[in-house]
Design brief:
The protein has 21 helices and 17 strands. It is α/β, with parallel strands linked by helices and about 525 residues long. Strands 1, 4, 5, 6, 7, 8, 9 and 10 form an eight-stranded mixed β-sheet that branches. Strands 11, 12, 13, 14, 15, 16 and 17 form a seven-stranded mixed β-sheet that branches. The chain is elongated and about 105 Å long. The N and C termini lie far apart (about 55 Å). One of its GO terms (molecular function) is propionyl-CoA carboxylase activity. This is Methylmalonyl-CoA carboxyltransferase. It holds the Pfam family Carboxyl_trans.
Amino acid sequence: MSWQPELEELARRQAMAEAMGGPDKVRRQHEGGRLTVRERIGAMLDPGTFHEVGAIAGKGEYGPDGRLAGFTPSNCVMGRGLVDGRPVVIVGDDFTVRGGSADATIREKPIMAERMAADLRLPIIRIIEGSGGGGSVKTIETTGRANLPGGVGGTWLYHHTGDNLSRVPVVGLGLGSVAGLGAARLAATHFSVMTKETSAMFVAGPPVVNALGNNLSKAELGGWEIQTRSGAVDHAVETEEEAFAAARRFLSYLPGNVWELPQRLPCKDDPNRSDESWLSVIPRDLRKPYRMRPIIEGLMDRGSVFEVGRYFGRSVITCLARLSGRPVAVLAGDPMFYAGSWTADACAKVVRFVDLAETFHLPVVYLMDCPGFMIGLEAEQRATIRWGVRAMAAVNQSTVPWCTVILRNAFGVAGVVHQPASRYSVRYAWPSARWGSLPLEGGIEAAYRAEIDAAEDPQAKLAEIEARLQQLRSPLRTAEAFWVEEIIDPRQTRRLLCEFAGLAERVLEPGLRAHGMRP
């Protein structure tokens, strides 16, 4: 006797599940400019590699004969697959089934996806649309009760949502309206992406917020500009295909989990490559800014720079890159914004990025140009100094190899935060570097007020004092006291950074760190 009838019934149920919310709901998804969850998973993974888990989980409707008459699949699709040949876990919300809300959720599915990632030590990609399995007011009626947030069993999803950050790479793709638990799952990632025209993210959407007397559209409340500038989301792209490409590229810099080391790729870019423009890229006019990104692009392997969080904390640039094929985490000051001063947002950005490097064993390269913490009333209202010392703690607590190149400014308490204080790190300075407790500009008038006021020509006296002090602040004088180890020809920088990456590779150690990364 064959079990063929049961296999045919299994195939029928699988076909029902693959139909998702039905043709009308699928059509509506496409008309909104969005792919279905199954199309997204197929585009995210290497072709033909998706192994679905729990495909026929859902709610069946049975006729008088006891046979299945109708089927509503769970609005969570999950399983395993490959990204660039590397195994990952992937879990996605099906918005065609009850808008991704709790009414159609089997909560064990997203929990199992998170557990699978943790216990098999695999990266997890969350494709999020709707509430991500979160609650709805209607849930009270459909279940006959109100759910206590978390509750028995539910706490596991919240546990893994945060705990996986210290174990495996976590990527979130917000590809529609994302609210509530879905917003939490998108924010609790190492890298998050939104689509500009078709996605939004909020704790509660416009219907709830506008009931309180507001009149906001989705974009005004939680569009990509709001969320990338607030730091809640890392990246925004035009299309879903670009979101998948960004996720693949981000994962390429990281190991599969914290018990592995980042993968070195073949590299044809000469480690000794130089560029004459580096000799003059820093203006002699201290008040004149310059563009840092071309310097980063030039120093790193060609085509390897991948910026993260461009629109948040903009006086600091954070990106992943490679040196002789080895992944590194790059911090850099951006003098185009606040002259490179560290704002509260910039400090928060540094904390999160250093934690990412520490979690996944990425050596840090810091191209420094920081005149200090941002000052003024707004800076005090934003508790900039508290965020600044948090950044200091993150740098000092890190254990990954660290290399700093001081390009121009290093002043004040923020200037201290350019290398770990308790261990050896490699440090270089360009001839354009300058440092001190505070910049001479503005400080001279305070320190020499009496002498300037007593002079016959106060402006001439100010200029005389400034010229005298500028001579004394030469980095060459600092090098006499061995307070800076090496002042280098800028044209040597790439060679020295590639050497650093090779030395760092020898001492990197995989494994869990003393503290887990927080979102």
